[in-house]
Amino acid sequence: MSEKDEEEINNQIKVVILGSVGVGKTSLITRYKTRKFLKNIPPTSGSNFVNITKIINNKKYILNIWDTAGQEKFNSLTQTFIKNAKIVLLIYSIIDKKSFQDLDTWLNLVKERNGEKGYLLGIAANKSDLYEQSEVSDEDGKKYAKKIKAIWKLTSALKESKGIDELMEELLNNYINYEEKGNNDDVTVTIKLDKSSFSKDNKKEKGCCKNKKNKNENNIRYRSNYSSTSVISKSLSEDNISSEF
Predict the structure, then answer these.
(1) What is the 3-state secondary structure (H, E, C) of the chain?
(2) What is the pLDDT of residue 196?
């Protein structure tokens, strides 16, 4: 194996997406991957797998993103996809309070499979384009994120990529920093949170994020060589998944 191939293997980051049915998980990841919004996406059965290559600080990283099913009947399979995830993205819909309340259930699945440490947590408060119909306040979302040491952002698959871009950028930069320092096992405890995520002043929050984006935009660029494959639950077993990661 060449040194280049070995580096690519070492720079693969497993990301798992969790959330209840209808919160927009697939739409949000599609927006992040393609910069587009797709209508009438059917509920995920088992999992969708998406490969995204990103260049950060002149180094190539491959994101292996597992978009999991939100139905309870797939929970045992979902735990298989959770194994060895380095970034866990929890998604709820701001117009569905129950999906917010369900975050504890998804987090418990992660802890049962991966323990308390070794991964980063992010929360996407999705469907911000329907903000006037919100059933979950920003304050409640931020309080919960602070409680579980997660990074929180408002997102919308329909309108723009900004929210999911900023969330993933911050998660990736934090992960890479801890990976380089050799402290990734304790990342959920020692993660330095973005104070703007807990600001009550929305204008200040937006200004902070804008400045941060400008600061890092030269370090991150997107590749177009994306690929995605639908994975049907019946064709997978815990053994063949664990052998890949």
Answers:
(1) CCHHHHHHHHCEEEEEEECCCCCCHHHHHHHHHHCCCCCCCCCCCCEEEEEEEEEECCEEEEEEEEEECCCHHHHHHHHHHHCCCCEEEEEEECCCHHHHHCHHHHHHHHHHHHCCCCCEEEEEEECHHHHHHCCCCHHHHHHHHHHHCCEEEECCCCCCCHHHHHHHHHHHHHHHHHHHHCCHHHHHHHCCCCHHHHCCCHHHHHHHHHHHHHHHCCCEEECCCCEEEEECHHHCCHHHHHCCC
(2) 43
